[in-house]
Write a structure and sequence with these properties.
This protein is an alpha+beta fold and 243 residues long. It is 28% helix and 36% strand. It has helices at 2-17, 98-101, 111-137, 145-156, 215-223; strands at 20-33, 36-47, 53-56, 58-64, 73-80, 83-85, 158-161, 166-175, 180-183, 186-189, 196-204, 230-238. This is GLPGLI family protein.
Length: 243
């Protein structure tokens, strides 16, 4: 009996984890200035099933494994000489394009940088007001504006793949060329002569986002067998932290 239960669990786990394939296609880097190295990380997600699947994900945003307890971002793991290093960095999350747009400006107080920041703030203020207005015009009853925005962002993060469909994405990020990094009391050093590899993890969740959904939305998502959750890991790809 125990053997049957164990086999059933393994089959269920295999089924869940084989729904998606994640592959890193290419990593391109260039030194935009003496203080920054820009990276473009191209990858793809393939639905390996004969049914459409949906999930919550911000596919062009990145966060370190050490800081990824509850996130919509693509999680990344760094391997140094084939050994996983649980560092909080060297990349940091960009949920909005502000940080990326400012990468070419070492001085964020320069007139050019200030103008970019102003335009970004104006854009997101307009979006904020538009989301609140549309929510109320469509019969929304919540009064907490922060919740309305979280709900909107979560629903906007829904990705759907048709049977056997592949979607390609590009994550743009940067490294400040600081080689010493840490995670709590643990210290790490990006030795320029070492081999470094990066791996992506899609840690897809739905039940944990209950607080950001209406009761109806949460019920519909939990009942939908094609709205998936689970952990899906990519291949590893060499990444350049050399001089």
């Amino acid at each position: 009996m125990k053997m049957i239960i164990a086999l059933s669990f393994l089959l269920l786990s295999f089924s869940a984890y084989s729904q998606l394939e994640v592959r890193i296609d290419s990593i391109v880097s260039n030194d935009s200035n003496s203080l920054k190295r820009k990276f473009s990380l191209a990858y793809r997600i393939t639905n390996k099933t004969a049914k459409p699947v949906s999930f919550f994900l911000l596919p062009e945003s990145l966060i370190a494994n050490a800081a990824s307890s509850l996130t919509l971002f693509v999680v990344y793991k760094i391997y140094q000489n084939h050994v996983f290093q649980d560092m909080d960095g060297p990349f940091f999350e960009h949920q909005i394009p502000k940080a990326e747009l400012l990468d070419d400006f070492p001085n964020h107080n320069s007139p050019e940088a200030i103008e970019i920041i102003k335009k970004i703030n104006e854009k997101y203020k307009a979006e904020y007001l538009s989301v609140l207005e549309n929510y109320k015009n469509n019969g929304g009853t919540a009064t907490d504006n922060s919740w309305i925005m979280r709900n909107y962002r979560l629903l906007q993060s829904k990705v759907t793949l048709q049977p056997n469909e592949t979607k390609a994405f590009v994550i743009k990020t940067s490294w400040d060329k600081i080689r010493a990094t840490s995670n709590g009391d643990l210290e790490y050093f990006l030795n320029e002569k070492d081999l470094f590899e990066i791996e992506f993890v899609l840690d897809l969740k739905k039940s944990l986002f209950k607080d950001d959904l209406s009761a109806t939305e949460f019920s519909e998502i939990m009942k939908d067998p094609n709205f998936i959750q689970g952990v899906f890991t990519s291949d590893k790809k060499k990444i350049n932290f050399g001089e």
